Amino acid sequence: MRFVWAVAAFVLAALMIGAGIAQRTVFEGPTTASQAIAVDADAPYVLIDGAVLGAHPGAQNVRIEGSGPIFASYARTADATSWLSTSDYVHVTPAADGALDSALVAPASSDTADGASSEPPTPKGSDLWLDEYEGTGTLDETLQLPDGMSLLIAADGTAPAPAAITVTWPIRNATPWAGPLILGGCVLLVAGLVLYLLALRHARRSRGPRRKGLPMPVTEPIDIAAADDQKGVISATPTRRRLTRGRRAFAAVPAVAVSALLFAGCSADAWPQLAPSATPSPSATVVAPKDQESPVVTEAQAERIVARIADEVATADAARDGVAAATRLDGTVLAARQTNYTLLAAIPDYKPLPAIPSGRLQVILPEANDEWPRTFFAVAPPAGSDEASTVMSITQKDPWAPYKLTYLAQLTSDTDLNLAPAYVGAIAIPKDSPFLAIAPEKLAGAYADILTKGSGSEFASLFDNTDDAFQTQLESDRSTRLTAFNSTGATTGAMTFSATAGTTEPVALATLDSGAIVAVTVDDLDTVAPTNSDAVIKTGDNTAVQALAGVDQSSTGFVTTYGNQLFFFVPSQSSKERIQLLGYSSNILTSKVAG
């Protein structure tokens, strides 16, 4: 019976091990799925919809083959189609029958593409792309684009785009019973071996000597001489115990070796996943309103844009090239930079403006907007321990224009603001909004009135001046300049100060407590005029005024304008809070002879 059980164990072990190995070999399905994308029409661009790339779960390996340069990038589908509105392109989308639809899309009308250059757009370096890739002949990239994203493929933006495109997805072929089957088969194999050895020992023991009543053979005399001839010959036949031990050791070693070989090929996919998946701990989240549009940039995209701005402005700074600076700067930021270039050329020891900060950003507040223009605020950490963080407002005019830095200031307040996360974005506040303590378009004028009239201004009660570092600094600078002027020209002239709203459009993004961060410019004017007709105003040691005005004296005086970029927190109209200054920067813009 023991032999029967041993044979049954061997047979069952063979079946289980064979079934487990078969699951990992002959019965295992394909490990990848591929889709060749046929592009029939010649166009400078191919746009592959995210639904095509997401036909299978997991990473998407895209292989593009061409005869020359290859460019690829991805972005939100709406952004990509807006950028392509002035060009022919092939749009690849999934069809209803599961196949792919490849349609040639003609350029949009001139009204739709208003603002675009008449020249074909260049895909490289666009601020709309979340990432971009380049290659020659062949380009292989692994992506994982969600719905709402699309992949743009081109050669150089003019030549036909590569038409040989293949997307490959990995397929996870889990065989959770392969491991248990092989393990169970090995256990049965060892059990069958043990049963076989026990049965063999029992059978041999049962064949021992049996006593029978037979007559004894006749005793023959022993030949002593023959015995002497074989003296010293001893039989080397082993005993039954040693034979049995030898066979047992011989059979056990192959069983262990086979088991080791079988388990060496078992990966994690060959075993059931019994451990529960990790449950993330709850965290505070902000849910965007149902009708709110998408944030204009991601965090990584914002950091890349700021880094590009910093690099291009640094190149312009090195060459003191105002035209080059205009590719990434606008408004008062650009005017201050161009004035600085003029002064650096005229005054050898004049101090250049600080470099634009880049790197990892502390705060990113993008506008939630699917149209243009688009804006986002960013805060960069201080470059040194004795410096302040830098707050920036960066705007893109249209899909083809680069983002430009329009406001730049140093934070001076420690006010805690309730901002939306970057993945939600903030709503842009119209410049004439009646829901704030003051409309953004009126903020600069109201603050300028305070700078001119002080506490006598009708707007003084709206502002919190207890933490207003700009007013403190401005009063000190005015006092210093007035003292310097009076030391030589008090008897023949007079210096007066005033402030007016700047010409740069205000920018306002909402906070979560119904307030807004508003960026404005205010111009501070110093006017020096003679007090009698015979007097002449000279620039004296003020080399900056002389360099900008082009003369060293004037019978009518001089007017010098300083551009001030200011960031405020403006509470809602129903709030009891007052308007707070968050940060500022001040730079000389112009100096001219008074008319």
TrEMBL record:
Q: Where is this region: Disordered?
A: 109-129
Q: Tell me which UniProt keywords the record has, alphabetically.
A: Membrane, Transferase, Transmembrane, Transmembrane helix
Q: Which residues form the DUF8094 domain?
A: 294-589
Q: Look up keyword Transmembrane and say if it applies.
A: yes
- Secretion signal: which residues? none
- Residue ranges annotated as transmembrane are 177-200, 249-271
Superkingdom is Bacteria
GO MF annotations, alphabetized: transferase activity
Q: What is this protein called?
A: Glycosyl transferase
